[in-house]
Specification:
The chain is of the alpha+beta class and 377 residues long. The chain contains 8 helices and 20 strands.
């Protein structure tokens, strides 16, 4: 087990910075998830930690040891790839035993460990099969089992579930999280799937264009996004980002959005430099915080012309138009308005997010930012 530190790490490919000034601490035994869209730098970050890419600037430390010049084989790391990286001509047993054999271990030494890990991963009945005879989920289990046999200081996982169907992804998410919890091995997990990030990680690190946007526990990042990008990256359905304006009056600071005014529980000076009446802002409203109006609503109510209704079992997604903007709300399962009907929707005033339309930074409470956020985020 080990801690990891990225200390002002940069990675250039030619003149293009794939990772920019990354500083990130990962605790011993932590499950850290790097999440973001394709090209955000998360896989490059993982490959630098593994030693498969060399950092252009900055230091990478494992347990306070600088490993920038250390070869991959000397870092005591096990890596699980999206493509499984199994030997197709070898059986499951031979794939699992490849590492111990290559180290010169005798079969009587590694055979019990191979069979024990195979039993743990549900592979005991498939040891004689080759990868082509296995399902995608079984192949991924072989890749994980092979990594477990290493008993490394670090597990690195690069989108290991992206080739699996939804049911298998759920099953493997549970298995990976359980194994990491039982083994206590520091794990860095790369994904573009926010569900994996929210359900598996002790903390998540959101990246965009090579820049770390925010780091924190899943619920912290969800409830207090540092930028509009972070807010849009976490949560299903996606947060509504709407055009709005600040309104300063005798009743305090309000946000004008969708033709209604929402009172903000903040002092005017906390919005500087956004302290002028009519200043344009970007307003974030999560679908879960938009509910059918009842007449006893705690917040303002707006009218929504329904364009689509999506029953999802325990809930219903309703998408429509108001003030020439498109909004999605998450209604109770038994509330299914007709398409083209008009429904009244209540806004929870305690769950309103406000961002700068130019920088994307949250302008309500920047002290909630969980990690370094660049001025140009």
């Amino acid at each position: 087990m080990a801690s990891v530190d990225f200390d002002h790490v940069w990675k250039y490919f030619g003149d293009v910075a794939s990772v920019s000034d990354l500083s990130l601490h990962i605790e011993d035994g932590e499950f850290m998830v790097l999440v973001g869209p394709s090209g955000c730098g998360k896989t490059t970050t993982l490959r630098m930690l593994a030693g498969l890419e060399r950092a252009s600037h900055g230091e990478i430390r494992i347990d306070d040891e600088v490993v920038n010049s250390l070869r991959p084989g000397k870092r005591d790391i096990a890596m699980v790839f999206q493509s499984y990286a199994l030997f197709p001509h070898m059986s499951v047993y031979e794939n699992l035993a490849f590492g111990p054999r290559s180290r010169g271990d005798r079969k009587k030494t590694f055979d019990p460990a191979v069979r024990r890990v195979a039993e743990t991963m549900g592979l005991a009945e498939h040891l004689a099969r080759r990868p082509a005879a296995l399902s995608g989920g079984q192949r991924q289990r072989v890749a994980l089992a092979r990594a477990l046999l290493r008993t490394p200081r670090l597990f690195l996982m690069d989108e290991p579930l992206s080739n699996l169907d939804a049911a298998l992804r759920l099953q493997m998410r549970v298995e990976i999280a359980k194994l990491q919890r039982e083994l206590g091995v520091t794990t860095v997990y790369v994904t573009h799937d926010q569900v994996e990030a929210m359900t598996m990680g002790h903390r998540i690190a959101i990246m965009k264009d090579g820049v770390l946007q925010q780091v924190g526990a899943p619920e912290e990042v969800y409830n207090n996004p540092a930028t509009s990008f972070v807010a849009a990256s976490i949560g299903t359905p996606r947060i509504n980002l709407l055009d709005g304006a600040l309104r300063m009056g005798e009743d305090g600071t309000q946000i004008e959005v969708l033709g209604v005014h929402v009172a903000l529980p903040i002092e005017r000076n906390s919005l500087q430099p956004f302290d002028s009446d009519g200043a344009a802002v970007s307003v974030g409203l999560r679908p879960a915080d938009l509910q059918p109006a009842t007449g006893n609503d705690r917040g303002p109510v707006f009218s929504l012309v329904v364009d689509a209704v999506e029953p999802m079992g325990p809930e219903t997604y309703v998408t429509g138009r108001c003030a020439e903007q498109t909004i999605t709300a998450r209604f109770p399962a038994d509330h299914k308005p007709a398409v083209l009907s008009t429904v009244r929707v209540s806004i929870d005033p305690t769950k309103v997010y406000v961002f700068s339309p130019s920088s994307g930074l949250s302008i309500l409470d920047r002290s909630r930012t969980a990690g370094p956020v660049p001025a140009t985020a």
